[in-house]
Specification:
By secondary structure, the protein is an all-beta fold. 0% of the residues lie in helices and 43% in strands. The chain is built from no helices and seven strands. The strands form two sheets. Strands 1-2-7-6 form a four-stranded antiparallel sheet, with no helix packed on it. The protein has a three-stranded antiparallel sheet with strand order 3-4-5, with no helix packed on it. It starts with 32 loop residues before the first strand and ends in an 18-residue tail after the last strand. InterPro entries: A-crystallin/Hsp20_dom (IPR002068), HSP20-like_chaperone (IPR008978), Small_HSP (IPR031107). This is Hsp20/alpha crystallin family protein. It holds the Pfam family HSP20.
């Protein structure tokens, strides 16, 4: 059914609806994230299908944890004469950011990548209450 993209579908979805798979190479499954609140902190599980450990980078800056995945794939198949049967290339990157607080440091976060799933544990840190300095204005007279 053709519907405007404001309803979550593209006008071209039905046109490119191939019976042998989606034309977007499964990008809809990329970086789906579950965040679980535990007693010790937060557990973050992110789906990264087809990614390798060396493709994944995590950075903590100004209280934001940013996870970036970049990939370059090249699938070349040739027949016995060396003519191309199929040539496909994929190159792209995507990232997601989560606010974890200014109190969390890189050493506090534990990360593990296994079977296309990135699992990170982030501890809960209490934000230190700021002491308010009272500043008075001098009054002449």
């Amino acid at each position: 059914m053709l519907m405007p993209s404001i309803f979550g579908e593209s006008l071209m979805d039905d046109f490119f609806d191939f019976p042998f798979g989606s034309y977007n190479n499964g990008m809809g499954e990329l970086m789906k994230t579950d965040v679980k609140d535990t007693d010790q902190g937060y557990e973050l599980k992110m789906n990264l299908p087809g990614a390798k450990k060396e493709d994944v980078k995590a950075q903590l800056k100004d209280g934001y944890l940013t996870i970036q995945v970049s990939s370059n794939r090249n699938n070349d198949e040739k027949d016995s004469d060396g003519r191309y049967i199929r040539r496909e290339r994929y190159s792209g990157s995507c990232s997601r950011s989560f606010y974890v607080g200014d109190q969390v440091t890189e050493e506090d976060i534990k990360a593990k990548f296994e079977d296309g799933t990135l699992t990170m544990t982030i501890p809960k840190k209490e934000q230190q209450p700021q002491v308010e300095d009272k500043k008075y204005i001098s009054i002449e007279g």
